[in-house]
Amino acid sequence: MHLRIIIFFAWAFxxxxxxxxxxxxxxxxxxxxDTKLLIIHADDLGVAHSENRASIYALEKSPVNSAxxxxxxxxxxxxxxxxxxNPEMDLGLHLTLTSEWKYYKWGPVTSKDSVSSLIGExxxxxxxxxxxxxxxxxxxxxxxxxxxxKKAYASGIDVTHLDAHMGxxxxxxxxxxxxxxxxxxxxxxxxxxxxxxxxxxxxxKSLLDESTVVMDYIHSILPTDFEKGSTQYYTQLLRTLxxxxxxxxxxxxxxxxxxxxxxxxxxxxxxxxxxxxxxFFTSKECVQLLKENDIVLVTWREIRxxxxxxx
Amino acid sequence: MHLRIIIFFAWAFxxxxxxxxxxxxxxxxxxxxDTKLLIIHADDLGVAHSENRASIYALEKSPVNSAxxxxxxxxxxxxxxxxxxNPEMDLGLHLTLTSEWKYYKWGPVTSKDSVSSLIGExxxxxxxxxxxxxxxxxxxxxxxxxxxxKKAYASGIDVTHLDAHMGxxxxxxxxxxxxxxxxxxxxxxxxxxxxxxxxxxxxxKSLLDESTVVMDYIHSILPTDFEKGSTQYYTQLLRTLxxxxxxxxxxxxxxxxxxxxxxxxxxxxxxxxxxxxxxFFTSKECVQLLKENDIVLVTWREIRxxxxxxx
Lengths: 311, 311
Prior knowledge:
The structure is a homodimer of 311-residue chains.
Chain A: H1 3-14, H2 25-28, E1 36-45, H3 49-61, E2 66-69, H4 76-85, E3 91-95, H5 129-135, H6 138-154, E4 162-164, H7 173-186, H8 202-207, E5 217-219, H9 223-228, H10 230-239, E6 244-251, H11 257-262, H12 271-281, H13 284-292, E7 295-297, H14 300-308
Parallel strand pairs in A: 1-2, 1-6, 1-7, 2-3, 3-4, 5-6
């Protein structure tokens, strides 16, 4: 085939014109432009046995169709075993730079001497994002995140996407650029929303191109919503979901001794919170709501293979 | 200590008489020479929330009177909080050089580049002692163990003694010498039995002096005993306890989802095993057996303060 024709077809399949991104993500994935596309995405796999069990149950038995894994966490090997035995599952990496719980901790996968700006005096990651931002050297962030991705691949996981635990990997323009660069390096879509276009940063602007996929909406239940009831929040969300692509970030675990111990001083995103997420997304009502509202589930693997990796 | 009881501690369960010490440990602690002294010692604190909860319960509500902590494990901070709030508890360090469970892992507290001989390709400690022995460089063992002790002190724990998870820190004469030297360096008694006098090693002989405390007996239930019933084993053990000092190593946890997940492929030293230990040592029958058999409980803190640290 003539070179010019190849170039033409490459553009055609990606749905781009010289004027920019005229086609929506839905159209680029082969759906009508006004489709309500949804990724129901479980965060924090690997953090605990409770989280792993609940997330695996939901991935197998419910509309939850995607999840991401925290490579530095103690229960990572359990998810590796699951991922390698179930390669069809849509599993990405929840890039991790914080260790936020009071009594249960982890640190970098990189040798500590090489990423000393990422750890506190106790040898673990800093608990919260502001501590991380205050100390982290950009080159050490890049090294640690690259090593997390390399470890996941070395373990045999078919990584479908990258996202950022507690947003740490996307907390400054410099870290966002690293996060986007790693996506390009490994041919993986990264979780971003349309605010990325407004960031006044040369490095970020240079990374935005036809392979970039930007969510139209990212939703995650907040403490004020949780207080009013998870079912109410999610029901309303699904009933009012807008056309475009939405990533809904949820956290699944059992309200058991382990998860209660982890979130001992932290009801927000705690054991009961995660059990409530699990209860809703494994309910018949959730399935019914998706159907009634013409919501189409889509995975990161589809995005990766139909957009990110198409040249 | 669990899984493969190796080389050094494997000998211990038969018991050895004392040679070369003029006064018995009982006498040095102020008891008649023929007293039946017992340390009821819970291993593996820090390994899991289930282990921490069960061990704390037993330390507070039962004759279990001593325990040791695994510094590299994810739940170490939970035990730090307990130890610093309860400084009277008899808590030592279960020096850790292996990560033996299938789906739940940890590695060194030292920067990995400095102790690369202690870790496998996956970045964790080797699972079993023979792997550890085959790879470990003695200077890296010393560095890691010293860093575990320093981390415990920096965390605020009043360390009462040292012992060796799975016997790894006492698996070769060279590692035993390191283990004993660290005891001297920090003024801490280390778990040894009288076979130490028979080891034909100049370094070890030079470390044996009047501050060395050697257990007359070390006991720990084995799989064949567990099969016949934990209660039967411990009842018989307490009824036939001999005069002298005995250290009884037990493992306490609940037979819950977390512990079942950790010991998923390993009924030996598994969740039901640890629950059976907990059930026996928190029973009225245990208290009664100690009383009926004139058994006197003694702590590592008494040994540390009355023998090890007396010049």
